[in-house]
Amino acid sequence: MPSRPISQSPRTRPTCCTRSALNAEATYCDDCGKPLVRCMSFEECGGLLDDNGLCHTCVTPHMQIEAGALIEAKVGGAVALPVSITNGSRVGRPLFVTQIWSREGTGDWREERLSWEKLMAGEKRPVTITADRLNHSGVHNIEILVCVATRWRWRQECYAFSTNFALEVEGEAGKAGPVVNIGGESAGHGNTVYISGQAQTERTQKTRQAIDMVLVRAEKEERKLKLRGLDEGLWVPRNAKICWHGFSENQAPMDGPILRQDGILAAGRSRTRAEGGGGDIRLLVQDQQGAVDLEQSRLLSRRHFELYIECDRLVLRVTGRSGLRINGEAYGPDKTLTLNNGDIIEPLTRAPKALALKTRFHSEYGRVSTIEFSRIIS
């Protein structure tokens, strides 16, 4: 397994945060005061998310050009590059490689054939990257995009990583097929592969050792491929601040990011944790004077729906047996939906106007910094 990580966080978590996160009730680091944004599978991995929403404990893929790689092609022909992908998780977390794409220069992405998906921790599996537009001599830049997912129960986080290398082709079409000599020189954040138009010896050239390909996060490609974010220009990070309006004291969390150990806020009739219960957001039907309608409130489940941020989207999961409405459309139990700016949540399907919440996003350069939930009193 390669000894170096494929990517580095722009600001890695200090040791003090990891130590503080061991306390299940802790929400901020005791030493540096930073919010403890835990991985969705923290129960198993014990990892914290970096500033870009990545848990390096769960998601640590490595890519290598295989040792002994042998590739021959003529100018105008094609090159098949044998590579391998390894799951570098140190805590036994599986990684799912969902797609691999490649492109030459500024051309269109081409999806590579992938006959497998799941990588257990420490496991390495092969894939072939093709370059079929070597129609002239010179340098050909080949970019590879690897899409991966980490899963926990019903949830999934998806990411994309990229790397590149240069093919330097010498020779003319019709001459002897050039031999690819894979060298260790860096080009961009990848490697250089030299294709010589004339073999210098009669022996076939091969790579002497595996070559690490340095993978980096490809956030823009993640949004273009709809792996993450609401669209190409808007996304909701895990550390987005959530504000609550129109709730009585202790019936909603303090304003701030979701810092529960599992990253989920539970909304329903149940008392909140601050009130001695097990919920996070208490939903009760009230009139404009604040009087509680007990009869209608009993129609709400104790855990009616859940809120969490996944793949840079605000997600609602219906858990109440009677379902709910969003923007007037009814959804039943176990339905998972992405919330957008301006959406209206109506927990009572038979009396939608009795209780409603409106969402509002505040964004800066496409990044949603604040989410507001406001009660609508009929």
From TrEMBL:
Q: Which domain of life is it from?
A: Bacteria
Ranges in a coiled coil: none
Q: Can you say what this protein is called? A: FHA domain-containing protein
> What single Pfam family name could you report for this chain, choosing any that match?
FHA
Q: Where are the transmembrane segments?
A: none
The FHA domain is annotated at 265-331
- Kindly give the PROSITE patterns that the UniProt entry links to this protein: FHA_DOMAIN (PS50006)
